[in-house]
Design brief:
15 helices; two-stranded parallel ribbon; binds iron/sulfur cluster; alpha+beta; binds cobalamin
Length: 353
Amino acid sequence: MEAIAQKARELGLIPLGYAPAALAPRGEKSFREHLRAGIPAGVAYLGKNQEARNDPSLILPNCSLIMSFALPYYQENLSEDPETGRISIYALGRDYHKTLRKKLDLIGKHLKTLVPGCNTRAITDSAPFYEQFFAEMTGIAVRGKNNLVRVNQGGSWVFLGELLTDISGAVSESRPFSAGEQHPAPCPPGCRLCQTRCPGGAFTPQGFKIERCLSYLTIENPGEIPPEMIPALGNRIYGCDECQLACPENRKLLRRPPAPDPDFKCRYSRELLSISALLDLTEEDFLRIFAGSPVFRIGYQAFMRNVFAAAANVPGNPEILRKLKAPRDTVYPLTLRESIRAQSAKFSKNGEA
Ligand code: B12
Ligand code: SF4
Ligand code: SF4
């Protein structure tokens, strides 16, 4: 196992640990209960393939062992200016699925040289799989009240990835790769900062409401942004970082942040992300600028929907109002109309209309 951990470190990954695949069903009950509240359209896939979620052998035949890894991605992203669109930190560079998948495949290749004949399957973010559950099972990751798993090197600013294997005679208990590795501090009992600072109010007494999470609304959501949620977006045009930024435990763990992979280096200038400039973005521009990034996945129309919504939150601005009113074809007319309404109201309030 040390050889695998060493290979992971060489690739810039944090080797977390490994667990028997047979542990998977333990998450089943809580998952079912959680989903009973209803699944919004954009993440309907969560309700499917529950059998595979509880039995990794349906993903890799005879799967016996899950190895968990984390990939740090933190970098500064302090776009507080309401006229500049903010993209979530995880999405500032290359699409992490590609970067992490490639690294996991290299570890799989290495494993095959050590254990000839074994099979592997790399997973990152590919439902149905309990990624956070298996990270926690290693004993060196803890899931906070913000839903996210944090580790000592990098806090919660890490992507999770796993390598499934079918090596026989595998372990019967879960373990960290490094025996001396400490468990990060759990949430202090009185702390709920991530939840109270959540701009969407996604943490409710009834549990986490996916459809109120700005990450859902700007990324997975196939429909309009509900008008009552538009003010909560502020200048966010893709994803949201607030429940991680608000977390004091996260800040402590970031005192010596690991350098993010060069793939994740921010690709966008402040000028490019000006909301006024983004309102002029053509589909060709979008495809060129965001090729290979996570933003690309949502497509031009959904991206423009997010830009319209953020444009509603810019202080009264005649240029933005003019651009919003310019004739355009959109599959999100409600969000556009709401943005025009909000800008018109601010503009006339300033007495400049
Ligand atoms: C769907 C999804 C979303 C949805 C819903 C999120 C949610 N909390 O349910 C949306 C679009 C909102 C979302 C947003 C984000 N996501 Co997301 N998301 C996923 C995905 C694909 C599935 C998560 C899932 O199953 N949700 C369904 C609900 C029912 O599950 P849950 O509440 O999270 O946990 C239940 C079970 O998983 C289980 N369980 C979980 N852990 C444990 C532990 C034990 C011991 C047990 C018994 C059970 C158990 O029980 C829980 C309660 O029923 C995972 C990847 C994956 N395949 O796991 C990434 C993932 C969780 N997301 C990730 C990220 C980075 C984000 C964002 C930060 C992105 C951003 N900056 O905008 C936000 C954060 C929002 C938040 N605070 O939750 C990372 C988290 C990394 C980390 N350090 O933990 C993941 C792991 C992707 C990855 N490979 O890195 N996400
Ligand atoms: S990502 Fe943003 S909206 Fe979603 S739970 Fe975290 S703070 Fe709330
Ligand atoms: S803000 Fe507080 S409650 Fe939320 S994850 Fe961080 S330590 Fe836990």
